[in-house]
Amino acid sequence: MINIIGLGYIGLPTALMFSKSGIKVVGTDFNTKLVGLLTDGKLSFEEDGLEELFQEALSNGIEFSTEYQKTHTYIVAVPTPYIKDSKKLDPKYVISAVNSVLDVCEKGAVLIIESTVSPGTIDKYIRPEIEKRGFVVGEDIHLLHAPERIIPGNMIYELENNSRTIGADSQDIGEKVKGLYANFCKAEIVVTDIRSAEMSKVVENTYRDINIAFANELAKICRTDNMDVYEIIRIANMHPRVSILQPGPGVGGHCISVDPWFLVGDYPDLTNLILTARKINDSMPRHVLGRIRDIMREHEIKDISKVGLYGLAYKENVDDTRESPTLQLLERMDEHLAFGVKVFDPFVKERIVDHQFMNFEDFINEVEILVIMVGHEHIKTNMDVIKNKLVLDTKNICTFDSSYKL
Ligand code: SAJ
User: Would you say the CB of residue 164 lies under 6 angstroms from ligand 1?
Assistant: First the structure.
């Protein structure tokens, strides 16, 4: 039996995949409401293919509980936020989960940390927790790091098809855990040491952040002289060794906008490029605000309540709003300006900001300037409805010519 701790965006799909492969799984979370919901057969977030996988796991006997289980294998997939002031990782949830595992586990247990952690975290914070209890790591408890690589919106496919990394103290235990993941992962699984596994995960997300920052900087440069940044990136990317990502209204989510800070926090004198990229990406909501002001000025619109932001999620076709550029934009608008700005997202069913509409038609009818902040499929199929509005298209998805760009 595997006990998976943390039933969020990573822990839950991973638990379901193990269950699908025939392994007995118990998912544990301290959130009683969430455990109740899952036990009742209801999901807490939307994701392509998740419902079917969930139903299959339920019929395979997957269980959810607030209690930690006495078993042989544990996977910890709890959040790892960063401390805003110091920019360092806050390991409190991982430490607490590990201690709860140590309260119940048997000697010989395998403890796998899946949560993204900054390089060195496992040696600095997790190993000592185990040793403090009198356990010998590698003998009484096997400690490993198995960071995930799945992208929200395509999680199920990527769980099966993305290569993975297992960080272990010895090749022997690394190979055993590799065998465990091979139950559902069809791609290559690399075994390395724990610190390299920690570092490579953070490096992957930092690389993407820097690449997006480059695209965003190009968008700003092109704006000053009316060049088409998308056309320029498209042409540049035809070069066989160039692959620039797309500019946008900012970088959100709990991964790319967070992980680079771990490196900045731990190596402040060595991270000029990484820090600059973060600042560029964080400046994009302000750039969008500048573009809204340009359009208002050009059309002599003074009333901010005529502006509607489409999209609250951090990216297309997901309902996750963590660090979303729209929320960042609303935070940046001073109170006077924020007053009355309308917001709509077809994926976000709970009211989380002022002036949030629950119905697209009502929203569109009230709006003169529509700002596309997220390129959900939904808006792509509503081009006819929006084409007569003033549209600021920060995602370059409009199929008509009159829209304004970043
Ligand atoms: N974005 C752009 N331009 C682009 C691509 C993305 O502005 O060309 C924006 C998105 O709109 C979004 C943000 O970046 O606001 C992040 O979105 P994303 O789709 O790039 O990535 P995430 O955060 O959903 O998932 C990332 C992935 N990491 C990499 O691709 C290196 C995923 O594989 C990781 O598993 C995940 O982080 C994680 O959990 O760490």
Answer: no
Residues with catalytic roles: 201, 255
Q: What is the pLDDT of residues 236-281, one digit of tens each?
A: 999 999 999 999 999 999 999 999 999 999 999 999 999 999 999 9
Q: Quick check: 336 pLDDT over 90?
A: no
Which atom number of ligand 1 is nearest to the Cα of residue 10? Answer: 39
- The pLDDT value recorded for residue 60 is 96
Number of domains in the chain: 2
Q: What pairing do the DSSP bridges indicate for beta strands 307-310 and 189-192? A: unpaired
Indicate the residue type of 212: I
Q: Is 252 near ligand 1, meaning CB less than 6 Å away? A: yes
Tell me the C-alpha distance between 346 and 148, whole Å.
Answer: 28
The structure tokens listed for 130 are 């185990």
Q: Which helix (H) or strand (E) segment is 38 a member of?
A: helix 32-39
Phi, psi of 370 (to 5 degrees): -105, 125
Strands (E) located in 241-330: 307-310
Same domain, 259 and 363: yes
Tell me how crowded residue 41 is: count the other CB atoms within 10 A of its CB.
9
CATH, residue 277: 3.40.50.720
Look at residue 198 and tell me if it is in a domain: no
* pLDDT at site 337: 62
> Nearest residue CA, atom 14 of ligand 1?
251
The complex scores an ipTM of 0.98
Cα 308 to middle of ligand 1, angstroms: 25
Residue 335 has pLDDT above 80, yes or no: no
Q: Look up the domain containing 321 and give its range.
A: 203-405
Ligand 1 centre distance from Cα of residue 151 (Å)? 7
Q: What is the pLDDT of residue 333?
A: 80
- The distance from CA 347 to its chain's CA centroid, rounded to whole angstroms, is 16
